[in-house]
Amino acid sequence: MASTMGVLSSLEKDNLLSSLDLPGLSADLSSSRSVLDEKVTASISQLGSFSLEAIASLENVASERSVVEARIAASTKMGRVAALKRDEMAQVAASLEREKEELEGQLAHLPTAVETLHMAKQAERAEVEQENANVVDEEHKNERKLNALEQAVACYSARLGLKFEHTDAEELVLVFTLVDETNPKREFRAKVKVHPTTGQYELTGCEPDFDDDAKRRMVNELNTTEDFGAFVRSVRRIFKATV
Protein backbone atom coordinates (compact mmCIF):
# COMPACT_ATOMS: atom_id res chain seq x y z
CA MET A 1 0.00 0.00 0.00
CA ALA A 2 2.76 2.36 0.98
CA SER A 3 4.63 1.57 -2.21
CA THR A 4 1.51 2.20 -4.27
CA MET A 5 0.96 5.58 -2.61
CA GLY A 6 4.54 6.43 -3.34
CA VAL A 7 4.09 6.07 -7.09
CA LEU A 8 0.75 7.90 -7.24
CA SER A 9 0.69 11.57 -8.19
CA SER A 10 -0.65 14.23 -5.96
CA LEU A 11 -3.77 14.45 -8.01
CA GLU A 12 -4.33 10.78 -7.84
CA LYS A 13 -3.81 10.89 -4.11
CA ASP A 14 -6.35 13.63 -3.71
CA ASN A 15 -8.87 11.80 -5.89
CA LEU A 16 -8.36 8.61 -3.88
CA LEU A 17 -8.75 10.36 -0.57
CA SER A 18 -11.81 12.21 -1.73
CA SER A 19 -13.37 8.93 -2.77
CA LEU A 20 -12.98 7.46 0.76
CA ASP A 21 -15.91 8.08 3.20
CA LEU A 22 -13.91 8.89 6.22
CA PRO A 23 -16.85 10.01 8.39
CA GLY A 24 -18.73 6.87 7.53
CA LEU A 25 -15.75 4.76 8.38
CA SER A 26 -15.35 6.62 11.65
CA ALA A 27 -19.04 6.12 12.41
CA ASP A 28 -18.82 2.43 11.57
CA LEU A 29 -15.77 2.14 13.76
CA SER A 30 -17.53 3.89 16.61
CA SER A 31 -20.57 1.70 16.19
CA SER A 32 -18.46 -1.45 16.09
CA ARG A 33 -16.60 -0.27 19.17
CA SER A 34 -19.87 0.36 21.01
CA VAL A 35 -21.18 -3.08 20.10
CA LEU A 36 -17.89 -4.61 21.22
CA ASP A 37 -18.01 -2.66 24.47
CA GLU A 38 -21.58 -3.84 25.11
CA LYS A 39 -20.59 -7.44 24.45
CA VAL A 40 -17.57 -7.11 26.74
CA THR A 41 -19.70 -5.50 29.43
CA ALA A 42 -22.35 -8.18 29.07
CA SER A 43 -19.71 -10.87 29.19
CA ILE A 44 -18.18 -9.31 32.29
CA SER A 45 -21.62 -9.03 33.87
CA GLN A 46 -22.39 -12.63 33.02
CA LEU A 47 -19.03 -13.70 34.40
CA GLY A 48 -19.72 -11.74 37.61
CA SER A 49 -23.16 -13.30 37.99
CA PHE A 50 -21.72 -16.73 37.28
CA SER A 51 -18.99 -16.13 39.85
CA LEU A 52 -21.56 -15.16 42.52
CA GLU A 53 -23.67 -18.20 41.71
CA ALA A 54 -20.57 -20.39 41.77
CA ILE A 55 -19.53 -18.95 45.14
CA ALA A 56 -23.06 -19.43 46.52
CA SER A 57 -23.10 -22.98 45.23
CA LEU A 58 -19.71 -23.65 46.77
CA GLU A 59 -20.92 -22.23 50.09
CA ASN A 60 -24.04 -24.41 49.91
CA VAL A 61 -21.91 -27.43 49.14
CA ALA A 62 -19.58 -26.62 52.06
CA SER A 63 -22.57 -26.17 54.40
CA GLU A 64 -24.14 -29.42 53.27
CA ARG A 65 -20.78 -31.14 53.66
CA SER A 66 -20.51 -29.85 57.24
CA VAL A 67 -23.98 -31.17 58.00
CA VAL A 68 -23.11 -34.53 56.49
CA GLU A 69 -19.83 -34.68 58.39
CA ALA A 70 -21.66 -33.80 61.63
CA ARG A 71 -24.18 -36.56 60.96
CA ILE A 72 -21.38 -39.01 60.26
CA ALA A 73 -19.61 -38.03 63.49
CA ALA A 74 -22.86 -38.34 65.46
CA SER A 75 -23.57 -41.72 63.90
CA THR A 76 -20.04 -42.89 64.69
CA LYS A 77 -20.37 -41.72 68.29
CA MET A 78 -23.74 -43.39 68.69
CA GLY A 79 -22.27 -46.53 67.20
CA ARG A 80 -19.45 -46.46 69.76
CA VAL A 81 -21.89 -45.84 72.59
CA ALA A 82 -24.05 -48.67 71.35
CA ALA A 83 -20.98 -50.90 71.14
CA LEU A 84 -20.00 -49.97 74.70
CA LYS A 85 -23.52 -50.65 75.92
CA ARG A 86 -23.50 -53.98 74.13
CA ASP A 87 -20.19 -54.84 75.83
CA GLU A 88 -21.54 -53.79 79.22
CA MET A 89 -24.72 -55.79 78.70
CA ALA A 90 -22.64 -58.76 77.62
CA GLN A 91 -20.55 -58.49 80.78
CA VAL A 92 -23.66 -58.20 82.96
CA ALA A 93 -25.19 -61.19 81.20
CA ALA A 94 -22.00 -63.21 81.71
CA SER A 95 -21.91 -62.23 85.41
CA LEU A 96 -25.54 -63.23 85.86
CA GLU A 97 -24.86 -66.53 84.11
CA ARG A 98 -21.94 -67.25 86.44
CA GLU A 99 -24.07 -66.37 89.47
CA LYS A 100 -26.82 -68.64 88.16
CA GLU A 101 -24.35 -71.51 87.78
CA GLU A 102 -23.03 -70.92 91.32
CA LEU A 103 -26.56 -70.91 92.73
CA GLU A 104 -27.41 -74.08 90.82
CA GLY A 105 -24.26 -75.68 92.22
CA GLN A 106 -25.22 -74.63 95.74
CA LEU A 107 -28.74 -75.94 95.24
CA ALA A 108 -27.33 -79.22 93.98
CA HIS A 109 -25.29 -79.61 97.20
CA LEU A 110 -28.02 -78.24 99.47
CA PRO A 111 -29.52 -81.62 100.47
CA THR A 112 -26.09 -82.90 101.50
CA ALA A 113 -25.37 -79.67 103.38
CA VAL A 114 -28.72 -79.89 105.18
CA GLU A 115 -28.08 -83.52 106.13
CA THR A 116 -24.59 -82.64 107.34
CA LEU A 117 -25.96 -79.76 109.39
CA HIS A 118 -28.66 -81.99 110.84
CA MET A 119 -26.08 -84.60 111.85
CA ALA A 120 -23.86 -81.90 113.35
CA LYS A 121 -26.83 -80.57 115.35
CA GLN A 122 -27.62 -84.07 116.58
CA ALA A 123 -24.00 -84.65 117.58
CA GLU A 124 -23.91 -81.27 119.33
CA ARG A 125 -27.15 -82.05 121.14
CA ALA A 126 -25.80 -85.42 122.23
CA GLU A 127 -22.60 -83.79 123.44
CA VAL A 128 -24.54 -81.18 125.42
CA GLU A 129 -26.73 -83.88 126.93
CA GLN A 130 -23.64 -85.87 127.88
CA GLU A 131 -22.06 -82.80 129.43
CA ASN A 132 -25.25 -82.11 131.37
CA ALA A 133 -25.28 -85.71 132.55
CA ASN A 134 -21.64 -85.39 133.60
CA VAL A 135 -22.40 -82.19 135.49
CA VAL A 136 -25.37 -83.79 137.23
CA ASP A 137 -23.28 -86.84 138.06
CA GLU A 138 -20.48 -84.63 139.37
CA GLU A 139 -22.96 -82.65 141.44
CA HIS A 140 -24.32 -85.87 142.89
CA LYS A 141 -20.80 -87.04 143.64
CA ASN A 142 -19.91 -83.78 145.37
CA GLU A 143 -23.17 -83.89 147.28
CA ARG A 144 -22.39 -87.42 148.44
CA LYS A 145 -18.94 -86.31 149.56
CA LEU A 146 -20.36 -83.39 151.51
CA ASN A 147 -22.89 -85.66 153.14
CA ALA A 148 -20.08 -88.03 154.01
CA LEU A 149 -18.17 -85.15 155.58
CA GLU A 150 -21.10 -84.07 157.70
CA GLN A 151 -21.95 -87.62 158.74
CA ALA A 152 -18.36 -88.30 159.73
CA VAL A 153 -18.18 -85.07 161.69
CA ALA A 154 -21.43 -85.87 163.46
CA CYS A 155 -20.21 -89.39 164.22
CA TYR A 156 -16.92 -88.32 165.75
CA SER A 157 -17.86 -85.01 167.33
CA ALA A 158 -18.93 -86.50 170.62
CA ARG A 159 -16.08 -89.00 171.07
CA LEU A 160 -13.22 -86.95 169.63
CA GLY A 161 -14.31 -83.48 170.74
CA LEU A 162 -14.87 -82.58 167.07
CA LYS A 163 -17.07 -79.85 165.63
CA PHE A 164 -17.20 -78.25 162.19
CA GLU A 165 -17.52 -74.78 160.77
CA HIS A 166 -17.93 -73.34 157.28
CA THR A 167 -16.00 -70.49 155.67
CA ASP A 168 -16.97 -68.09 152.86
CA ALA A 169 -14.59 -70.02 150.60
CA GLU A 170 -16.84 -73.11 150.98
CA GLU A 171 -14.31 -74.84 153.20
CA LEU A 172 -15.23 -77.30 155.91
CA VAL A 173 -13.18 -76.53 159.03
CA LEU A 174 -12.54 -79.48 161.36
CA VAL A 175 -12.13 -78.17 164.90
CA PHE A 176 -10.60 -80.71 167.31
CA THR A 177 -10.53 -80.43 171.10
CA LEU A 178 -9.57 -83.00 173.76
CA VAL A 179 -6.23 -83.37 171.98
CA ASP A 180 -3.89 -81.66 174.44
CA GLU A 181 -4.26 -83.39 177.83
CA THR A 182 -2.77 -80.37 179.56
CA ASN A 183 -5.30 -78.06 177.88
CA PRO A 184 -8.37 -80.08 176.72
CA LYS A 185 -10.15 -76.97 175.36
CA ARG A 186 -7.32 -76.06 173.03
CA GLU A 187 -8.51 -76.08 169.41
CA PHE A 188 -6.73 -77.75 166.47
CA ARG A 189 -8.06 -76.81 163.03
CA ALA A 190 -7.90 -78.45 159.60
CA LYS A 191 -9.59 -76.92 156.52
CA VAL A 192 -10.94 -79.30 153.87
CA LYS A 193 -12.42 -78.36 150.51
CA VAL A 194 -13.85 -80.21 147.51
CA HIS A 195 -12.44 -78.78 144.26
CA PRO A 196 -15.37 -77.54 142.08
CA THR A 197 -13.87 -78.85 138.81
CA THR A 198 -12.04 -82.05 139.64
CA GLY A 199 -14.20 -83.11 142.60
CA GLN A 200 -11.03 -83.99 144.54
CA TYR A 201 -10.56 -83.35 148.23
CA GLU A 202 -8.04 -80.67 149.20
CA LEU A 203 -6.47 -79.90 152.56
CA THR A 204 -6.24 -76.08 152.39
CA GLY A 205 -4.83 -75.27 155.86
CA CYS A 206 -3.91 -76.61 159.27
CA GLU A 207 -3.46 -74.91 162.70
CA PRO A 208 -0.95 -75.81 163.93
CA ASP A 209 0.67 -76.74 160.63
CA PHE A 210 2.51 -80.04 160.15
CA ASP A 211 4.62 -81.89 157.58
CA ASP A 212 3.64 -81.35 153.91
CA ASP A 213 4.47 -84.94 152.98
CA ALA A 214 2.11 -86.22 155.65
CA LYS A 215 -0.63 -83.90 154.37
CA ARG A 216 -0.19 -85.04 150.76
CA ARG A 217 -0.21 -88.69 151.85
CA MET A 218 -3.47 -88.32 153.78
CA VAL A 219 -5.21 -86.37 150.99
CA ASN A 220 -4.17 -88.93 148.34
CA GLU A 221 -5.49 -91.73 150.51
CA LEU A 222 -8.77 -89.87 151.06
CA ASN A 223 -9.26 -89.27 147.30
CA THR A 224 -8.51 -92.92 146.61
CA THR A 225 -10.69 -94.52 149.30
CA GLU A 226 -13.13 -91.67 150.02
CA ASP A 227 -13.05 -92.87 153.63
CA PHE A 228 -13.45 -89.53 155.39
CA GLY A 229 -13.62 -91.13 158.84
CA ALA A 230 -10.14 -92.58 158.43
CA PHE A 231 -8.93 -89.16 157.22
CA VAL A 232 -10.33 -87.45 160.36
CA ARG A 233 -8.65 -90.00 162.63
CA SER A 234 -5.33 -89.54 160.78
CA VAL A 235 -5.47 -85.75 161.19
CA ARG A 236 -6.26 -86.08 164.90
CA ARG A 237 -3.34 -88.49 165.42
CA ILE A 238 -0.93 -86.04 163.74
CA PHE A 239 -2.26 -83.13 165.85
CA LYS A 240 -1.86 -85.24 168.98
CA ALA A 241 1.70 -86.10 167.95
CA THR A 242 2.55 -82.41 167.80
CA VAL A 243 1.65 -81.86 171.46
TrEMBL record:
For this UniProt entry, what is the primary localization, expressed as one broad class?
A: nucleus
Q: Which domain of life is it from?
A: Eukaryota
Protein's GO biological process: cell division; chromosome segregation
Point out the coiled-coil segments of this chain: 86-141
Q: Where in the cell is it found?
A: Chromosome, Centromere; Nucleus; Chromosome, Centromere, Kinetochore
Please name the InterPro entries in this protein's record: Spc25, Spc25_C
Q: Which Gene Ontology cellular component terms are annotated?
A: Ndc80 complex; nucleus
Name the Gene3D superfamilies on file: Chromosome segregation protein Spc25
Q: Which Pfam families match?
A: Spindle_Spc25
Keyword list, A-Z:
Cell cycle, Cell division, Centromere, Chromosome, Coiled coil, Kinetochore, Mitosis, Nucleus
Q: Which residues form the Chromosome segregation protein Spc25 C-terminal domain?
A: 168-240
Similarity annotation: Belongs to the SPC25 family.
**Function (record text):** Acts as a component of the essential kinetochore-associated NDC80 complex, which is required for chromosome segregation and spindle checkpoint activity.
Record text on subunit structure and interactions? Component of the NDC80 complex.
What this protein is called in its record is Kinetochore protein SPC25
The record lists the organism as: Pycnococcus provasolii
